[in-house]
Each structure stands twice: as structure tokens, then as C-alpha cells.
Design brief:
Rossmann fold, globular, Ubiquitin-like (UB roll), 15 helices, 4 domains, 18% strand, 29% helix, five-stranded antiparallel sheet, five-stranded mixed sheet, alpha+beta
Length: 451
């Protein structure tokens, strides 16, 4: 199977979008590194879309790596687990990058910790079967995924077990595994695809079987030919098809990837499930393989720490709850001209002002930008050029939504489909007036949802 762009039912791309500078060279060739275990982690009880967890442990309790420390009875939720072995401290509050204040459980390290090559072997090493996985009970796969606390690790954070439970009213025929990683700077998924392709393939097959999909497509942008080749070899005789799609932002968005790969349009405000598709990130399906085949919960993830403001850009395998400051220290610290730290990438990420912010299941990267990288023109009045409309991949009118939000007209914002916006940032990227369109739309979405 060639790693060239392959013929699919879709065109291999989507309408509109933008082509920002990729800037992945800073960390793309840096192998995943495992820092020394932290002395303490702060594990938020909400790391996903849905209901927050309640603590299942009390202060002073000794916990082991992987032990459940928070859970919820809500269907759209996911438990959290101890990411190090140690002693639970009194519950605390923490602020997520999106500004939400949530409860968290501090754990002070104690006893022997799983680290270095032993941690890598535990998470990704050994054999990962591809035969016989369809003999497993689909409901048991979904339950194992739920128990492991797996959520979308590309940034969305939607509980994965919800996507995998079969629904007779909306049957699924295709699973798309998203290996596009279209956000500038970030390379955590890329390094995972290069260094641990086997669990990705096994996890994809398990997820597809659970959801009822008969076809598994693994989509990679054409700026990652080596990853495509590595995964093609890993997928041989498995039935997983590796497809290469065109590089464009936000190709990794599920409402862009589905039409690009299959030629199916996800309805405005709808989900891929509405057209018979489930989309999962490559790191997510690798976590599915660990949960089902080895009974391992989600406790660690790969985070890219990069940008012009970081001394030594790296891809780090770290426990949930480690602080951004600890990651930055593992990368040699900040450069003198660093002015902004972003949770995620520059297009969809949130600027953070506190380096004690904790890594969560959706933290794919920490991007540190210099003054030159963030300099932007002063905001002026909208000139009605229509560029934001031209690039919106969801065919919305971003300026109308943003200005309605700024005026506090939530009903008007709803009429312009504020809730359908995926916050990809294409509109703000091209706006010559420097209007903070995405920030205004985010505020509008939050207010509209509360009305």
C-alpha cells in the first residue's frame, strides 16, 4: 500500500480552511523522553467534556499507580486515576486552561515509582495482537474503556466509551483514526505513530469492533510520510487502511476529516455518528488497546513542549497532574524573550498565566511563544472583507457571531449557529482588523449555553 495520497470516497481534503506555518521542525525529530517522576501531582477531577468526578479516596490514603481516585455515575463522564504512587493530600481547587475552576486531588510521591524504560515498556512495549480481537464482546470493550477513564486525547476530551457503545438507531460502518495532528508546532501524535505504532493498530481494531464499524481508516496528513510508512507496515494484514490526506488546517477536526476521507458531510451542529462514522485520535486508540488488552487505565500521555520561547523543545511522556512548570524545567526553561505560554497549539489553545496548571488527558502540547511570534496588529473596526467567511470550514459567518456576542445579543448569536463553531481559529488567523473572533465566540457559546 503506497503512502501517496490514496483514492477514497472523499477528495482527501475539505472546503475552506487555512495553511499556517507548520513549525513542527522544532520537536518533530526529538524522540519521546521520560523525565524523572515528579515529587507531587495535582490530578483534576474534571479532565473531559461531561460531569466532573467525585473523590473516591480520602486524604492520607496510600494509593498505587493506576488506582481510581475519582468517579461519577453520569453516563457522559470518565473516572480519573492516580498517576503516581504515593499519599493522597487534602483536596484542592485548580483552574483549567479554559478558566474553569474544578476540584483536584494532590498526591505526594512515595515508594517506588514506575519510570524510564520500565514505564515505556509498561505503556507501549511488548506484543500487540491484531488477530481474534473481533471475538471479544463489544459491550465489554466499551466498559473497559470507561473503567480506564479514556477520553479523546486530541484535545476534545469527550469520553470515549460513549462513542463506542452501539446504538441501533444510528449504526456505525466506519471508524476513522485521526493521525493528522494539524495544529502548528505539536508533534506528540507524530512521535507516538513513529515509536509505538502497534498499540495504535490493535486499539483501532478493538474500537471499531466495539462500535460496530466494518471498516477502519487511519488518516495522516501528507506532511508526515514517515509516519504513514511506519503505520502501513504495522497495519499489514490487519485490515486497517492507512490513507494520506492533504495538509491543511484544521484537517484533524472530525467535521473536516469525515468529508475529506469519505465524502460525507456532517450536518451543521451534528456529529460524525449522524453519518455512520466514529472518529478517534491515534493516542486515544493506543489507550484503548492498553485498557482492553492489559487492563491499564489512562495515567500518562505524551506532551510536546515547544515554541520559540522554550530552550529545548521536546516530546515528554508524563503523568497526568504534573505541572506545566515542571515540563518547562525538563526542557531547559524559558528563553529570555518568552512572553506567552499556551495550553495546546497557537490556533486552538488557551493562554495560561500560571505555570502550576496541571497536565490533563487532553493536554497534547505546551507552546511557548516569543514576542515576535505573538505580535499582532491593533484591533480596528470590522471592514466587512469576508475573509473569515471564506476560510470557515463549517460555512459559518464568524464576524456576525462574534459581534453579536460582543453586543450581548445571545439570541442573534444562536441564530448564526454559535454553538456549531469548532473554535478552530481560522477566522482570527486571517482577520485584517485584528478582532479576537475566537475569544468572542467562546464567550458567546458559554453564555448562550447558560441562557
Amino acid at each position: 500500500m503506497s503512502t501517496k495520497t490514496m483514492q477514497t470516497a472523499g477528495p482527501g481534503t475539505f472546503a475552506r480552511g487555512v495553511r499556517p506555518a507548520e513549525l513542527k521542525h522544532l520537536a518533530a525529530d526529538v524522540p519521546i523522553e521520560i523525565p524523572s517522576p515528579p515529587a507531587e501531582v495535582l490530578v483534576p477531577l474534571l479532565q473531559h467534556i461531561g460531569a466532573p468526578c467525585e473523590p473516591t479516596v480520602e486524604a492520607k490514603k496510600q494509593v498505587s499507580l493506576g488506582e481510581m481516585i475519582g468517579d461519577s455515575s453520569a453516563f457522559v463522564s470518565a473516572p480519573v486515576h492516580a498517576s503516581i504512587s504515593g499519599v493522597v493530600q487534602p483536596a484542592a481547587m485548580t483552574t483549567l486552561p479554559n478558566g474553569r475552576h474544578v476540584r483536584a486531588i494532590p498526591i505526594k510521591a512515595g515508594g517506588e515509582q514506575l519510570a524510564g524504560p520500565a514505564l515505556w515498556e509498561d505503556l507501549f512495549g511488548g506484543q500487540w495482537p491484531t488477530d481474534g480481537l473481533d471475538r471479544r464482546d463489544p459491550a465489554e470493550i466499551a466498559q473497559a474503556v470507561r473503567s480506564a477513564g479514556i477520553v479523546g486525547m486530541g484535545g476534545a476530551g469527550f469520553p470515549t466509551h460513549v462513542k463506542l457503545r452501539r446504538n441501533e438507531k444510528r449504526p456505525v460502518d466506519t471508524l476513522i483514526v485521526n493521525g493528522c495532528e494539524c495544529e502548528p508546532y505539536l508533534t506528540s501524535d507524530y512521535r507516538l505513530m513513529l515509536q509505538a505504532p502497534a498499540p495504535i493498530i490493535s486499539g483501532a481494531l478493538l474500537a471499531a469492533h466495539a462500535a460496530g464499524a466494518t471498516r477502519v481508516l487511519l488518516a495522516i496528513e501528507d506532511n508526515k510520510p514517515l509516519a504513514a510508512e511506519v503505520l502501513r507496515r504495522a497495519a499489514e494484514r490487519s485490515g486497517v487502511e492507512v490513507l494520506v490526506v492533504k495538509t491543511k488546517y484544521p484537517q484533524g477536526g472530525e467535521r473536516q476529516l469525515v468529508p475529506a476521507v469519505l465524502g460525507r458531510e456532517v450536518p451543521t451542529g451534528g456529529l460524525p455518528l449522524d453519518v455512520g462514522v466514529v472518529v478517534l485520535n491515534v493516542a486515544t486508540v493506543a489507550a484503548v488497546a492498553r485498557a482492553v488488552l492489559r487492563g491499564k487505565p489512562l495515567t500518562h500521555r505524551i506532551v510536546t513542549v515547544t515554541g520559540g520561547g522554550i530552550a529545548q523543545p521536546k516530546n515528554l511522556l508524563v503523568p497526568m497532574g504534573v505541572s506545566y512548570g515542571q515540563l518547562i524545567s525538563s526542557c531547559g526553561g524559558l528563553r529570555e524573550d518568552a512572553v506567552r505560554v499556551i495550553a495546546g497549539g497557537p490556533m486552538m489553545g488557551f493562554a495560561v498565566g500560571d505555570l502550576d496548571t496541571a497536565v490533563t488527558k487532553g493536554t497534547s502540547g505546551v507552546t511557548v511563544l516569543t514576542e515576535g511570534e505573538v505580535r499582532r496588529a491593533a484591533e480596528t473596526a470590522c471592514i466587512r472583507c469576508g475573509r473569515c467567511v471564506d476560510v470557515c470550514p463549517l460555512h459559518l459567518v464568524p464576524t456576525k457571531i462574534a459581534l453579536a456576542s460582543r453586543a450581548g445579543d445571545w439570541e442573534l448569536a444562536k441564530r448564526y449557529y454559535v454553538e456549531a463553531c469548532c473554535e478552530c481559529g481560522c477566522c482570527g488567523y486571517v482577520c485584517p482588523a485584528g478582532i479576537p473572533l475566537v475569544q468572542l465566540i467562546r464567550a458567546g457559546k458559554a453564555k448562550a449555553a447558560s441562557e
